[in-house]
Amino acid sequence: MKLIEYKKKNSVIHKLDARTKLILCATLILLAFIFNDPLFLFALFLFSIYLSYLAEIHHEVIPRIKILAPSIIMSFFLWALFHRWSLFGSTEIVDVVFTLGPLTVDRIGLMYGLAMPFRVMTVLISPIIFLMTTKLSDVIHCLTKLGLPYPWAFTFGLSTKLVSVIGNEFMTIKQAQMSRGLETEKGSLIKRIKSHIPIIVPLTIKGIELSDQLGMSMSIKGFNPNSKRTFYRQLKMRKIDFLILIICLTSLLVSVVMRMGGIGVIV
Amino acid sequence: MNSIINTKNLWFAYENRNWILRGINIDIYPSEIVSLIGPNGCGKTTLVKHFNGLLKPVKGKVFVKDIDTSRASPAELSRIVGYVFQNPNYQIFSATVFEETIFGPKNFGVENPEQTAFSSIKDVGLEDKMKISPFSLSLGEKERLAIASVLAITPQVFIFDEPTTGQDRSTTKKIIKIVNRMRKSNKTVIIITHDMELASECSDRVFVMNRGIIEKVGDPHEIFSDERLLRKIQLSPPTIVTIGKSLAMNSVPLTVEEFVKRLKNEID
Question: Helix, strand, or coil here: A5?
């Protein structure tokens, strides 16, 4: 499975301006942090899945959520059991739901436990949708249009691409070592960490080689990050883009007001 | 004879979409050397990754020595099926050639791992480089080291994934020698290759794959005289086969030695 890679489709989302998609993605992330009520966050999660469906990439997004299942389950238990010791928690126990030895799960903990996995998933799915529906060149162009210096935008764009490449290399190296009897899932935590050394060493070397080759091929093509750049493809905002931007801004404002009024917040 | 590897209606797709393997039925027998040829992306590597459990069938079954691979871990199956990956750099991590070779035998609990590692290194002709860093080896030497580190596991089946890609003729000859030694020690060898010389010189049978199916199975003479098939899979026959055909020889020669012998017979 390729981790995150642009998927060429002819969907409504693909046709949106890259800036609109980036702002939509940022709005979803901000909304996921404004609210902490499980129902609100569940609605946001469903909306992000709906967006992936509109973008015709739900077949790619859903298996990625499955990969995240262990961390999602862990976040449920961590928040349910330990929310009272978090930065925003209160030491007071409200309506005990059940106890697990010395640990108590109260109503607030349960609500946090239910809410946080949806927050995590929304925060992860939104950028995936953005990156899978936007060409790398458009990601870079969009970031420069939004005021980011070109070298930074280029580095960001390239790193998203490299994450995918390195992810694939990781899988191949893991398979090569598994064929020589390496088992990464057995034994104590220390043993499991140590068992990753035969994967990490070739991966690091591969990463260095990759960046070296990339640097060389960019030099050959006369790449200079500090030169003034022009883009062959121009980004163009359409009516639908402006409409989505207005909806994003309005929903952010309304959400802040709701939050201040105690709506969408666990009490 | 009972097959050592057997697939029954094997279907495979990544993320359950776009079938890469479409109903593969093959049998590979003990002590046999087979080559798997076909265009890029036809599913050769995907197929062999099922033999040591790195991939599991979406539909159908794969049996290795009657073990259902969907119920066995890659670690269990790799003891029987050794896999030499296409790029040796994917597995090198140790400080010395010897340590790199002994990694597999130690993982699998092979008896007397030092001795096994040493004889594997000797088999591939790297005994003078045992104490040096594997990262300082040439690509050809790294390929031979990768072979040694799988040899040291002492599996019954060897898979070579494009062993001669990017290698010079001298390394290719060394690899052919290693394969021939494996033949003598009754090992089963599966070679994925685009090198038609390698496929024709080493194989007992050739499996031709195209778009996720087995297009044809036959001995090298049969496969390399089928021009229509080779054109279809966009591969050229070995040069010696083309020369033999141009001279209207009855059966195509696969090696230079075979060609010379036939030519002498014709002249006599």
Answer: coil
Q: Which of A63, A169, A182 sits opposite B15 (nearest CB)?
A: A63
Instruction: Count up the domains in chain B and report the number.
Output: 2
| Overall pTM > 0.90 | no
Q: Do B19 and B83 belong to one domain?
A: yes
From A75's Cα to the closest Cα of chain B, the distance in A is: 26
* Closest by Cβ to B149, choosing from A60, A178, A180: A180
CA-to-CA separations, B239 to A89, B200, B227, B244, B255, in angstroms, rounded: 76, 11, 13, 9, 9
Which tokens sit at B79? 């003891």
B92 vs A contacts (CB less than 8 Å):
201-202, 205
**Are residues B89 and B221 part of one domain?**
yes
Domain boundaries, chain A: 1-134+237-267, 136-236
Contact A181 B149 (CB under 8 A): no
Quick one: which of B243, B265, B237, B240 has its CA closest to B254?
Answer: B240
pLDDT per residue of chain B (268 residues) written in tens, 0 to 9: 689 999 999 999 986 568 999 999 999 999 999 999 999 989 999 999 999 999 999 999 999 999 999 999 888 899 999 999 988 988 899 999 999 999 999 988 888 999 999 999 998 989 999 999 999 999 889 999 999 999 999 999 999 999 988 888 888 888 888 998 898 999 999 999 998 888 888 899 999 999 999 999 999 988 988 888 888 888 888 888 888 888 887 777 888 888 888 888 877 7
Produce one character per residue of A47-63: b if its CB has 16 or more CB atoms within 10 Å, e if not. ebbebbeebbbeebbee
Chain centre to alpha carbon of residue A51: 14
Q: Are residues B160 and B254 in the same domain?
A: no
Give which of B16, B96, B107 to mutate to test A binding, by max A Cβ within 10 Å. Answer: B107
B210 shares its domain with B227: yes
Residue B263 domain boundaries: 238-268
CATH code, domain carrying B225:
3.40.50.300
